[in-house]
Each structure stands twice: as structure tokens, then as C-alpha cells.
Design a protein that fits this description.
This protein has four helices and two strands. The protein is mainly alpha-helical.
């Protein structure tokens, strides 16, 4: 990966709150695309609003994208 690209991705991740970064890190360990159901399990099923806030933060920082098919990382390098 080119150094500039790596720096840009690292900057995206450092701007995240700790809960959002932790969720992204857990999801990145999956071999398959992340699902909302998995995200909810990781965040806690009793906190649906918290999940929406974390997903919105990840989208704002161009880490995770939500679409009809589900969720995906905005870059394969993440």
C-alpha cells in the first residue's frame, strides 16, 4: 500500500471514538462482509440506538458504507 494511502486511512481511524474504532476493528477480522446483525451483537442487543450512532460515525469518517445489500468497508485496505 502506498505510504500516503496508509497515512490517510490511519488518520480516518484515529478520528473515531473508541467505541466506533473497536467496532470497526472487530468487523475487520471477519472474512465475510459485516452485517447489521453482527454489529448489533457486538454493540449489545439492548442498545439499538448506540449501534445507529456508531454506524453513522463510521460512515461520516468514510470507514463503513451502508447500502441495500448490507454493510461494507469503504476500502479493502481497512
Amino acid at each position: 500500500m502506498p505510504e500516503a494511502l496508509g497515512d490517510a486511512m490511519a488518520l480516518r481511524l484515529t478520528r473515531l471514538s473508541e467505541p466506533a474504532r473497536a467496532l470497526a476493528e472487530c468487523l475487520s477480522l471477519q472474512n465475510s462482509p459485516p452485517t447489521r446483525e453482527l454489529c448489533q451483537l457486538l454493540v449489545g442487543e439492548e442498545e439499538p440506538r448506540k449501534l445507529l450512532d456508531l454506524l453513522a460515525e463510521l460512515a461520516r469518517h468514510d470507514v463503513l458504507t451502508s447500502h441495500e445489500e448490507g454493510l461494507s468497508f469503504s476500502s479493502n485496505a481497512l
